[in-house]
Each structure stands twice: as C-alpha cells, then as structure tokens.
TrEMBL record:
Keyword Transport attached: yes
Keyword terms of this UniProt record: ATP-binding, Nucleotide-binding, Transport
GO molecular function, one term: ATP binding
Organism annotation: Roseococcus pinisoli
Domain ABC transporter: 2-234
UniProt-recorded name of the protein: ABC transporter ATP-binding protein
Length: 242
C-alpha cells in the first residue's frame, strides 16, 4: 500500500530523517513510536507530500509519489492529521469537514451530505455548528481526524492524535480508531502511550535518530533492550539538562 525507501531529510547538516524505510500493508495498524525529535513527524510529512525528501523513494498504491503534492497524495487515498491541529478557526466544524469532502465531491450539496456523514461517524454532531476556533484540544484533534476521513482515504496517518487527552478521551479516541480501521482503512499512528500501541497496533515501528531501529509485534518491541535504551537515553539526558 505504502512503501518508503531510504528516506533522508536534512535541515542544514542535521539529518532529521536519516535513511528510514517502512513498508505498510493494506489493513495494518502500525504504531510509530520513538523519543521526541526522532524524526517521526518529518517522516510523516514526506509520506503525505508535505515535504520532499532529499533522497529516497515513496510508492503509494503503485505510484511513485516521492515528489507529489499533498493533493496528489490525497487523490490517491492518503490522508493525515497534524501533530498541532491545523483547522480553519473561522469556519464551523461542519465547514472544516467539508474542506476534506470537496476533494471527492466538487458540488457543495454533495460535499455537505458527505461531511454530515463523517460528522455523525466521528461523534461531532453536538458541535457541528460551532466555530472551530472556539474548540478545545480534544475536539480539534477529533475534527482533524474527521476532515482527513472526509477525503475518503485508504490510508490514514495520525500524528499524536491522542496526545493531551484525558484517559476517558483516550478511550473514546481508541474506539474511534478501531471503527476507522473496521471500515477497511489502513492506519499509521504516532503515539507515546504504550498502552495505546499495545491495544491497537498489529506492528510497532521504532524511530530513533531518523532511522527505524526496531519493528515487530508491539509486545516484543516494547521489551527490546535497544528500544528501551533509545527512550531512557533521551529521558535521562533531559533530566540532566533540566
Ligand atoms: N523545519 C525544521 N527546521 C529545522 N529543524 C527541524 C524542522 N522540523 C523538525 N526539525 C528537527 O528535526 C528533528 C526531528 O523532528 P520531528 O520530526 O518533529 O521529530 P518527532 O516528531 O519524532 O518528535 C528535531 O530535532 C527537530 O528539531
Ligand atoms: Mg512529532
């Protein structure tokens, strides 16, 4: 479904993504984990066409999309959410979802109808008419997912869509992710809470210093000494700096 090979992204002399490869099969839920600064969001940006890698190739459903625009990715069935929600504050929740729906439904009436379905599916009905700028983080994150779903993707990339939520909100978000998957949508989720990875993902992929350093069954990966070291090394450094 999506195949990234030897992706490199450099900011000056610093390689945020340093030869990362990942192959994603149809129907998977991949949990992408790794310490802050590991390059996960930058890698996502490449997968979604929001940044072009310096080198490497990305194939999406048989098409070379390495240099394709975000819109071309969306047309081919890839959607993403942003780590920092990028909703249009002055639009209502429904109108934001319509922005996604217009991709496949150019006529306004059709876009409204499609967006309404997504509003119901994502539980946003009670706030459909609210101005998006008035929403708190949990609702904005859900709206991001709704707008992405409205493009009718086959593969959805979620970048920390569950971060900053309360335990109750996390449970609701996990339930939503399961229902999205049940629709046949392939998922890649960046997530720090291990319980989420363990309960949702069929495969965990660990990013560290711009590379995939481990992958496999989530329960095995979280016990991998190299993975534990990658996390601990960072948190110890951070304590030392604080
Ligand atoms: N636009 C940018 N310009 C310069 N450095 C960046 C930029 N975006 C990300 N970085 C750096 O690249 C590294 C990886 O960042 P990011 O992909 O956001 O990591 P993650 O999502 O895993 O926390 C970090 O060190 C970050 O500071
Ligand atoms: Mg990130």
């Amino acid at each position: 479904m999506l195949e990234a090979r030897d992706i490199v992204v450099a900011f000056g002399s610093f390689r945020a993504v340093d030869g990362a490869s990942l192959s994603i099969g149809k129907g998977e839920i991949i949990g992408l984990i790794g310490p802050n600064g590991a390059g996960k969001s930058t890698f996502f940006n490449c997968l979604a066409g929001d940044r072009q890698p310096a080198s490497g190739t990305i194939m999406l459903r048989g098409h070379d999309v390495t240099r394709a625009t975000p819109e071309e990715h969306a047309r081919l069935g890839l959607a993403r959410s942003w780590q920092v929600p990028a909703v249009f504050d002055d639009l209502s929740v429904l109108e934001n979802v319509m922005v996604g729906a217009f991709l496949r439904h150019p006529r306004t009436a059709d876009a409204v109808a499609a967006a309404e379905k997504v509003i119901d599916f994502t539980g946003l009905r009670p706030i459909a008419a609210a101005r998006s700028g008035s929403l708190g983080t949990p609702a904005r994150k859900r709206l991001e997912i709704a707008r992405a779903l409205a493009t009718e993707p086959e593969i959805l990339l979620l970048d920390e869509a569950l971060a900053g939520l309360t335990p109750t909100e996390v449970r609701a978000a996990i339930e939503l992710v399961r229902r999205i998957h049940a629709r046949g949508i392939t998922l890649v989720i960046v997530e720090h809470v291990m319980e989420v990875i363990l309960s949702l993902a069929n495969r965990a992929v660990v990013f560290h210093q711009g590379k995939v350093i481990a992958q496999g069954a989530p329960k095995d990966v979280v016990q991998d000494p190299g993975v534990i070291e990658a996390y601990l090394g960072r948190s110890l450094n951070r304590k030392a700096r604080a």
